[in-house]
Amino acid sequence: MTHIDPIEVSMKIASEGKTLQAKKILMDALTQNKDNIEILNALGDLTYLLEELDDAIHFYEKSLRIFSQQPDILFNVALIHKDSGNLVKALEAYTRVLEIRPNDIECLNNRGNIFRELSLFEKAFQDLNKANEIINNQKITSLHKVEPWVIYLNLGNVLTLMGRYMEANNFFDKGLALKPNSFELQRSKGVILFHLTYYQEAINHYHAALEIKPHDIEIQLDIALAHLSIGNYDEGFKSYESRAEVKKLDGQIWTGQEDVSGKVIYVRAEQGLGDVIQFSRYIPMIEELGAKIYFQVPKPLQNIMRSLGDQFEIVDEMERGFDYYTYLMSLPFIFKTNLHSIPARERYLSVDEGKAALWNKKLNRSERYQVGLVWQSGFRENRPELWQINRNRNITCEFLQRLFHLDIDLVSLQKGDEAINEMKDFLGKHPSFRIKEYSDEIENFSDTAALIENLDLVISVDTSVAHLAASLGKETWLLNRFNSCWRWISSNKTRTPWYPSMKIFNQRKLGQWDDVMDDVIKNLKERIK
């Protein structure tokens, strides 16, 4: 009598599209031999194919309990957990595979990518770099499942997140040598060149990526930021209209072509608080067109934004009740802003005189120069892709040490527990140093503005307080990172066309603040002598 293999029969039936019948054959076979790992694995494979992921995990795990050393089954388990969003379980499964096959390049690549998703960048680098070393040592040019260029891409992306830009650039070049028509590689190469301030070269790679995926919104935004960074505002603001966060509302979007005299326009704020401060200057320009404006403003800014004028209303949110709507960051495009037409009044926000008088008493000013200070821009925990940028633009208290030796009064304008605690630790090491600190008494930007009004100078990293101080016409010195934001870049590298009262002190090398502080100290000494 011929033995019928239920696994072979089920595979044949499944190949004919009869998957449910194939599953029944295997389940019947399992009742006869419940610890048969071949049947369990076949059921795992079939239910995985049917996207019955919980069942697939059940069968695979049962098989692994009988015999744990099955790297291919563990790999499938890892894939399922990854697809289900359970990254920790996926990591566990990949780790078990690597205990059996430590040089499995595909597994190293996949685990490295999960570490990156979990923002464990050093661990991600270790896995991906090991895969890279295996490729180099074995002189591998192609693989069945993971091509070397994919390793180079992923390794470069992790190094970018770690701020190791030159190393990342080298891996993108290696990848492009193997796969020049890769959208991901062309875009990543553009991103790294942007970080290294080679803006035109970045644009070239962005366009190469766009030829591969012509309708990709993110690459159009990349192109916009690069054009803005070289002062090409016409093309930059036009491309910037592609940004993904602009959603459609009830009503007609205002493009600047429509007559809005006597009409109601709703202007939505977007992005960071500094952006709202910077681009609020356009609100009075809409008023001049005869429109009634409702301006959506984040709560911390609402009091100070009222100082723009009284011809518009501030709201939290609107869904309807307007003729047109637009977004705050679209206004430079609508008003055809270029480097020569930026509405750059010396001062376009003002302070509450009563609050300013109270802060004057509280400060108990001496005859010494009063300098406001901000050294951290905050940390966006849910945006790991911005962590390195945040690190780049923040400055540690140790770099500020020479300020405390000058004949000036330092006043903290800093908010945020992490930054405040850093300063407390720093002052604990230097008991003779003094800085006035009022973070518990500052509730919103109107309070900060009133405090700034009583100072002679504000020194700040790239953060919303720098925007606020400059919008008040206060002399503001910006401590600016090497890979700067586009708004601070100009032909005159120490000035920005957006704020007449701002002076910019730029890093000459990425991450190096010593030269910046040398220039600040020199300028301060000349100011107070």
Keywords:
Serine Threonine Protein Phosphatase 5, Tetratricopeptide repeat; alpha/beta; elongated; 51% helix; five-stranded parallel beta sheet; 3 domains; Rossmann fold; single chain; 9% strand; 24 helices; 529 residues; six-stranded parallel beta sheet
The helicity comes to: 40-55%
Strand order of the largest sheet: 8-7-6-9-10-11
Instruction: Tell me the β content.
Output: 5-15%
- What is the CATH fold-level name of the largest domain? Serine Threonine Protein Phosphatase 5, Tetratricopeptide repeat
Number of helices: 24
Note the overall shape: elongated
Q: How many angstroms does the end-to-end distance come to?
A: 107 Å
* CATH architecture assignment name of the largest domain: Alpha Horseshoe
The tally of domains stands at 3
For the biggest sheet, the summary is: 6 strands, parallel
Q: How would you name the CATH homologous superfamily of the largest domain?
A: Tetratricopeptide repeat domain
> What class do helices, strands and sheet pairing give?
alpha/beta
Tell me the name of the CATH class of the largest domain: Mainly Alpha
How many beta-strand runs? 11
Mean pLDDT score: 89
Gyration radius over CA = 29 Å
Q: Are there runs of 5+ residues with pLDDT below 50, and where?
A: none
